[in-house]
Structures are given as C-alpha cells and as structure tokens.
Write a structure and sequence with these properties.
Helix content: 25-40%
Shape: elongated
CATH superfamily of the largest domain: lambda repressor-like DNA-binding domains
Strand order of the largest sheet: 2-10-7-12-5
Number of domains: 2
Radius of gyration: 19 Å
CATH architecture of the largest domain: Orthogonal Bundle
Order of helices and strands: EHHHHHEEEEEEEEEEE
Strand content: 25-35%
C-alpha cells in the first residue's frame, strides 16, 4: 500500500527565489488536487472506493485531494489507472497560448523506488496526431513558415546552440534543453543564433 506523500517538487532555476519555488510547488499540488477531485466525481467514485481501487491509504488520498499531500509517481500512476485516465491528465497544468519551459523548470515527479524523474512537457489531446522531426539549423536567413492547418500546435525542444522560435511577432529565445509550445496555425519562425543549432520539433495536428 503506497502512502509516501513527499516526492513531488516544482523545480526552479538556480536564481529563482525560495518564495517563487514554494509558490510553484503549491500551484502544482493544488492543480493535482483539483484534477483528482474532478476526475473522481466524473467517475462517480467515493473517496473510499477510489483509495481501494488504487491501493492507496484513504488518509493519503484525502490529504492529496485537500492539497495537503505531495504524491509520488507510483501514487499518481495508481490513481490514473483506477480513474481510467492518463497519468498526464493528473499532472498537466492548463496551457497558455505560447508556453516556454526552461531547462531545469517544469513539474518534476520523482519515484519513491528508484533514482528516476519525469517532467511532463505536453500531453497529446484526444484525436490528435503528432509528427516528430529532428532539426539541424545554421545561422543566417531564418525559416519563416506560413500558417499550417487550423488547430496545429508545434513543440520544440532545443538540443544544442541557441535559437529564436515561435510566432513571428514574439518568438522565444531558447538555449540547450529549453522547450517552447506555440500555435502552428499562425506565421512562425525558427532562427538559429549559433552554429549547428539542433533540436526536436513535434507537430501536433488535431
């Protein structure tokens, strides 16, 4: 029976204040708590029944739903299975139109059984298709793309170098391991700022 409640952290960049880090952690835990309450109500399950199906202590689940808990990867996976929803639905925060996640940032979930962490960058909406491309770009003329099909989203994770990526009117500057998501159905740009800039782009078509 899993009852470890202290292994979710919201990571911050080294120069972030402790107050900012604490606020980010509270936001993450609050989002998880609200999602579990909503999904349990949708499934028509009592607190006792969901705890039983997931194999977690009722007190653990009660703390988690109140926003006082801090769940492990194993607890969230068990709850997702019991609720019939993907793991990502429990931890994915609401998305802004353009989202930048810097290296070392994002909701990090830790295992209680191994030296293993996951950072969810984006979950795939129902009915969507994703195409994955590897990029190698040199400085010079930027790649400006016309709008793709309505509803298209693009996700970029930079591997090496630096680049300006995103909507033409407001691209984000990325460094190694940074992530950005932006609408692909508006004019958008990829401009390499360093030689041999590389990364991965995922095109999401709904």
């Amino acid at each position: 029976m899993m009852n470890t409640m202290d292994v979710v952290r919201q990571t911050e960049r080294p120069d972030s204040s402790s107050e900012h880090a604490a606020a980010g952690q509270r936001d993450l835990i609050g989002s998880i708590a609200a999602t579990i309450r909503r999904e349990r109500a949708r499934a028509g399950l009592s607190l006792t029944e969901l705890a039983r199906r997931a194999g977690v202590a009722k007190s653990t689940l009660s703390q988690l739903e109140s926003g006082a808990g801090n769940p492990s990867v194993e607890t969230l996976w068990a709850l997702g299975v019991a609720l019939g929803v993907p793991f990502s639905r429990l931890v994915d925060p609401p998305r802004r139109n353009v989202l930048v996640i810097r290296a070392g940032e994002g909701p990090v979930i830790h295992s209680e059984r191994a030296d293993y962490t996951v950072t969810l960058l984006a979950s795939c909406p129902p009915g969507a298709r994703r195409d994955i491309f590897r990029l190698l770009v040199q400085p010079g003329e930027p790649k400006v793309s016309d709008p793709h099909m309505p509803g298209t989203m693009e996700h970029v994770i930079l591997g090496t170098g630096r680049a300006l990526v995103g909507p033409v009117e407001a691209p984000a500057e990325l460094g190694p391991r940074d992530y950005v998501a932006y609408p692909g159905d508006v004019p958008h740009v990829f401009r390499a700022l360093a030689p041999d800039t590389s990364g991965v782009i995922v095109m999401e078509h709904v």
